[in-house]
Structures are given as C-alpha cells and as structure tokens.
Design a protein that fits this description.
mainly alpha, 78% helix
Length: 242
C-alpha cells in the first residue's frame, strides 16, 4: 500500500513538475530494498509512468515539439555512463549521496524556473554539454532530474507546459538506456518495482492533466515537506535525534 499510494503521488508530482523520485527511492528503501537496488527498481515505474504521462499530454492536445536532437543525443550518451558509474557504489554510500543531493533539489522545487527570451538562450554547443551532464545525472541518480530539466529547458526557450512534455520524453529515453544496466547488474527487485510502477503510472496520467489545467501548487508544498523528512531519514537524522 505504501508503494502504491506513494507511487501514485510521486507519479503526479513527476508529471507536473519533477522530483517524485525524491519520494519513491526512500520509500523503496523503507520497504526493505537496499540503496542501489532501490535506485534501479525505481526506474521500472519511471519508464511506465512517462509513457502514461506522454499519452495523457497528447490526449490534452499538447504537441511534441521538433528539433530535439541536440537534447536527446547527449542525454542518451550521458545516461549510459551515469548508470554504469552509480552501480559501482555500495548501498551505504548511495544512501548518503542521495540524501545530500536531495537538499539542493528541494531548492529547485521551491524556486520555479522562468522562460528565457530568444537572446538569453544557450548556443548549441552549450546546450549539448548541459544536456549530456543532465543525462549523466539521470542515468546515475534520476531523482530530481525533472526539476533540473525544467530549469534547463526553460533556459532553452520552452514554455513550462511544453518543457514538461520534453522532460517526459527526455526521461523516457534516458531510462530506456539506464534500466538495462541495472537489470544486468541485478539491481532491480521486481516485486516492489511492479507495485511502485502501478502507482507511478496512474499518478503520471493524472498529473499530466493537472499540469495542463493547473493545480500543482498544493502538491508541490506537500512534496517539499515529505522530501525534507525523507532526506533527513536517509542521512540518519532521526536516529541521531531519538
């Protein structure tokens, strides 16, 4: 129930803004899936929820923009490198790294990106480098990559609704590259992964509709509070306090 309900909530968050994996990876950890395997198992639901979100966006009449090669190609390359690198970490190291990374990602959740004008957009070379690095992070950690993507895509000139669609496509392809690496290394626990995927897929469909029609304010507030609590849990704060 924890994985189903938490997955549905996180799927909606992912579709509307990003950062749902800041909740689902710690939830998998709480459910008994060790750190690196939790990271890998989370990717199953990320894949299905992004398919669901994309179909939901299309049903709302949002079109997929063209000219995405400069974004997708470096992202795919970066994802493969990132997934392989993160699989070398121990579970305890991953928990610490993940907990530390969540703090700046929470700040990205609070401060929404603004769309830049034509004169403020990055040149092609910078765009390729930026999205390779984002792909590297997506392959390695995944959590919060949607927030990073929205900031980068808005700087590339996309409005926030279109940026959400591009974000979904980006994460889909990055996950297609990264997930087989985790499967090959035995870092997917299929039972918990399936339960979480069901919740994420449902949430992804609903969240995409909310993103088009408005209504992300309160879900973002709850997500920030939950993410802070879970980050402190991963860093052992509650054990130290009590």
């Amino acid at each position: 129930m924890l994985l189903l309900v938490g997955g549905a909530f996180a799927g909606a968050v992912n579709a509307m803004a990003g950062g749902g994996s800041m909740l689902t990876v710690p939830l998998l950890d709480l459910a008994g899936v060790p750190g690196v395997a939790a990271n890998g198992s989370n990717r199953v639901g990320i894949l299905t929820s992004n398919i669901s979100s994309l179909q939901s966006y299309r049903s709302e009449g949002v079109r997929i923009p063209g000219g995405l090669l400069a974004i997708m190609a470096p992202a795919i390359a970066g994802s493969l490198v990132g997934a392989y690198g993160i699989s070398r970490l121990t579970d305890d190291t991953f928990r610490t790294v993940f907990g530390l990374i969540m703090i700046p990602l929470i700040l990205l959740t609070i401060f929404k990106p603004k769309v830049k004008t034509q004169s403020e957009r990055w040149p092609t070379g910078v765009t390729v480098a930026v999205f390779f690095c984002i792909g590297l992070y997506a392959g390695a950690i995944q959590a919060g990559v949607g927030l990073v993507l929205l900031a980068a895509l808005s700087r590339s000139g996309f409005d926030l609704v279109t940026a959400n669609v591009v974000k979904v496509i980006f994460i889909f392809f990055a996950t297609c590259i990264a997930l087989p690496v985790f499967i090959f290394n035995g870092d997917v626990r299929w039972g918990p992964a399936f339960l979480l995927a069901v919740g994420l897929t449902i949430g992804g469909w609903v969240g995409a509709k909310f993103a088009v029609r408005g209504g992300e304010k309160w879900i973002r507030i709850v997500m920030i509070i939950a993410a802070i609590a879970l980050a402190l849990n991963l860093l052992g704060f509650w054990d130290w306090l009590f």
